[in-house]
Amino acid sequence: MERAQRLLPGLASTLAKPLGHGQNYHLLDFDLFTEPSQMQQAHWCFELRDRWRPATRLGAELELNIIELAKADRLHKAGAQGLNAWVTFLNIGKRSPP
After folding, report:
1. Does residue 21 lie in a domain region?
2. What angle do CA 69, 71, 75 make, to 5 degrees?
3. Contact call for residues 26 and 64 (beta carbons, < 8 A)
4. Is residue 92 situated within a structural domain?
5. Does any domain span residue 73?
6. pLDDT at 90 (0 to 100)
7. How many domains does the chain have?
8. Domain enclosing residue 55, as ranges
């Protein structure tokens, strides 16, 4: 998964240092998950869990949230509601000054 390799430096940094509030989000300018069954989701939340006891997980500090911005924008334009606040906020910076 070549695109996933693009995340490795950021993930390594995330796991190597303590996180502050809201720092466990990674905003991508490309679609990481491109299978047909994955095209209706732009926000992904990954947790570290024990393989044999999945109910046992490490704390939310090690939770990783990935937002595929281009996909979120396409879903927003198609009427999806999930990431409207993110898309609106990030699109403000794309507008030309009056």
Report:
1. yes
2. 115
3. yes
4. no
5. yes
6. 67
7. 1
8. 2-86
